[in-house]
Design brief:
Elements lengths: L1 E10 L2 E10 L2 E10 L11 E4 L1 E6 L1 E2 L2 E2 L6 H10 L3 E7 L5 H16 L7 E8 L20 H10 L2 E6 L6 H10 L3 E4 L6 H10 L3 E2 L15 H9 L2 E4 L8 H10 L2 E4 L12 E5 L2 E6 L2 E3 L5 E4 L3 H11 L4 H15 L16 E4 L5 E6 L2 E3 L6
Parallel strand pairs: 1-4, 5-8, 8-9, 9-10, 10-11, 11-12, 13-14
Antiparallel strand pairs: 1-2, 2-3, 4-19, 6-7, 15-16, 16-17, 17-18, 19-20, 20-21
Helix pairs in contact: 5-6, 8-9
Length: about 375
């Protein structure tokens, strides 16, 4: 059975007015004529975008990835209701036994998508292989990485992205073997210098974790890890909640890093009212749109990807096609997924339908329509 969706279809090249067809979980056809992207959705026309892809998700719907059990099912359902059609479940720095337990719970969900849920593509292992001097909101359980340990963790659930501090002893030598194993190494939670960052990129590091946050900043005599990213980085993730990074700094990154894509770094507080929530072993408070530790440190976010898109367009002034690339296509390309993050024949039927104000109206994950109104 085919489903026909009509409206203004957003592609990386621009916007076309027409229709697309979904069949057997994939996009069967896309037809239309070019229109002015700035007028998408006028006259009540629907705006069709590729489903959002979020490579940094700690939680949502009141649940945290590190809880194990059925937490990831709740998280995947809640983010699907906000237009995220595929995600990486992201861990916290913790004792290895706790990370193992979380990955064991994630393994089955990575193999089979649940009903009304985003596709869990795999794991972003954010810690414990980070610098204890740049924990940010991570608990104090940082340890050096070994290839044997990462390989063992990868057997429980597929690790697609791994954050490390390259300046820590032995880490630089691990980057090449990890890359060869299909794991994208990201530089993050790092006290390293500009030279450390360049060395990591030369060794095969693929990108940077939540650019600007929890890394050495840019100074004109000490460019730091941020300077390495801006000068040489091809890919980086960034949190566009307008709290983690000033809009001016986001614009700098957009001009410097061609593959800059957006993530939420969302916690259990995403999609939930103000209050106290878990983030690994920490308790965090959601208030005034942000999530913080008791000392005021930003601790992940309450951001959802539909709001990320609105921030890019309505605050930063990006065109709709460019903003769509930043929340979808570029992340898919980074992960090597040619059949996600784009509205094209043969791609998975991951579609977000919005109105002219970029408010969510419908979501489809692999052709399944998601209930965007009822609670998860």
């Amino acid at each position: 059975m085919k489903l026909r969706l009509e409206g203004d279809i957003v592609t990386p090249q621009g916007v076309i007015a027409g229709h697309l067809e979904l069949a057997h979980g994939r996009i069967a056809a896309v037809e239309g004529v070019p229109v002015d992207a700035s007028r998408a959705g006028e006259g009540g026309r629907a705006v069709l975008l590729p489903g959002f892809i979020d490579t940094h998700v700690h939680g949502g719907g009141g649940r945290d990835t590190m809880e194990g059990g059925d937490a990831i099912a709740t998280i995947a359902r809640r983010h699907a209701r906000h237009g995220t059609t595929a995600l990486l479940a992201t861990t916290m720095t913790a004792p290895i036994a706790q990370i193992e337990a979380a990955l064991k719970a994630l393994g089955p969900v990575c193999r089979e998508r649940g009903a009304q849920s985003a596709r869990v593509l795999g794991v972003h292992l954010e810690g414990p292989y980070i610098n204890p001097d740049r924990l940010g909101a991570q608990p104090a359980h940082a340890v050096p990485a070994t290839l044997v340990e990462v390989q063992r963790l990868n057997e429980f659930a597929p690790i697609k992205v791994l954050t490390i501090a390259p300046e820590m002893g032995g880490h630089l030598a691990l980057i090449g073997p990890l890359r060869d194993a299909g794991i994208r190494v990201q530089i993050g939670h790092s006290a390293g210098s500009h030279e450390d960052g360049v060395a990591a990129l030369n060794a095969g590091a693929a990108g940077f974790t939540h650019l600007f946050n929890a890394m050495t900043g840019l100074h004109h005599r000490e460019p730091g890890m941020v300077g390495a990213a801006l000068a040489y980085g091809q890919h980086a993730e960034l949190i566009p909640d307008l709290l983690h990074v000033h809009p001016g700094a986001i614009r700098v990154a957009l001009r410097c890093i061609p593959g800059l894509f957006c993530v939420t770094d969302s916690t259990a507080a995403a999609g939930m009212p103000d209050g106290e929530y878990a983030l690994g072993e920490h308790r965090v408070q959601k208030c005034l749109g942000g999530v913080r530790l008791a000392d005021g440190t930003l601790a992940g976010s309450a951001l959802t990807m539909d709001q990320a898109l609105r921030n890019l367009v309505q605050v930063l002034g990006l065109s709709l096609p460019d903003a769509s690339r930043r929340v979808s296509t570029l992340a898919a390309d980074y992960l090597g997924l040619a059949d996600r993050g784009r509205l094209a024949p043969g791609a998975w039927g991951d579609v977000v339908v919005m109105d002219a104000g970029l408010q969510l109206r419908r979501v489809f994950v692999e052709g399944e329509e998601i209930d965007v109104v009822a609670d998860a």
